[in-house]
Amino acid sequence: MTDGHIFFDSNAYNKGRRPAINIQLSVTRVGKQTQTSLVKEINREVMAFLSKYEHLQQFSHFGAELSAKVKAELLMGERLYSFFNQDLHESVPDEVQLLLFAQIWLHQYDSVPTDQISRHRWALTKAYTHDKKFFEEATSLGTLSELLKNVESIKTHIDSLCQENSN
Question: What is the predicted pLDDT for the residue at 78?
Answer without folding.
Answer: 87
